[in-house]
């Protein structure tokens, strides 16, 4: 049963926190029904336990991706869904994931922002470009 509460959606026992996460879950459902090698075997939302960053004394100590997806080919991929809003702590999480968990495949999925001259949009564009490196 799917129910929407503002931007939150109940779907398959999960409380998805945004419309973007809900849309991604629906896409994964469709890929589970698909035929062939591009098929999803299973997915989970905010999989537990989180990834811990050892020997970190301050700031972000752990990270919990939005989705864990197991593909037909046997590959396990974690996905973070962003909708045009990044903070410096997000970049820190991705950098720490890359350095502390290099064998974990993490894909950042985000909606492009429109081209505008506002300061916040320019800052966001810089953060997104930085995040793409990790």
Description:
- The protein is α+β, with helices and mostly antiparallel strands.
- The longest helix has 15 residues, at 19-33.
- The chain is globular.
- It is 31% helix and 28% strand.
- The model has no long low-confidence stretch (mean pLDDT 82).
- The strands form 3 sheets. It has a 4-stranded mixed sheet, covered by helices on one side. A 3-stranded antiparallel sheet has the order 1-2-3, with helices on one face. Strands 5-6 form a two-stranded antiparallel ribbon.
- The chain has 3 helices and 9 strands.
Features:
single chain; 134 residues; alpha+beta; 4-stranded mixed beta sheet; 3-stranded antiparallel beta sheet; 3 helices; 31% helix; globular
Could you give a short description of this structure?
The chain is of the alpha+beta class. The chain contains three helices and nine strands, in the order βββαβββββαβα.
């Amino acid at each position: 049963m799917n129910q929407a509460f503002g931007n939150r959606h109940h779907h398959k026992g999960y409380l998805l926190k945004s419309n973007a996460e809900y849309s991604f879950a629906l896409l994964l459902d469709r890929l589970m029904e698909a035929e062939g090698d591009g098929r999803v075997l299973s997915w989970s939302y905010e999989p537990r336990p989180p990834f811990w960053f050892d020997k970190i004394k301050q700031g972000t100590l752990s990270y919990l991706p939005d989705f864990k997806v197991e593909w037909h080919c046997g590959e396990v991929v974690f996905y973070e869904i962003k909708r045009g809003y990044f903070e410096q702590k997000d970049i820190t999480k991705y950098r720490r994931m890359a350095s502390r968990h290099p064998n974990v495949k993490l894909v950042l999925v985000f909606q492009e922002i429109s081209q505008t001259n506002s300061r916040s949009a320019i800052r966001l564009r810089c953060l997104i470009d930085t995040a793409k490196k990790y």
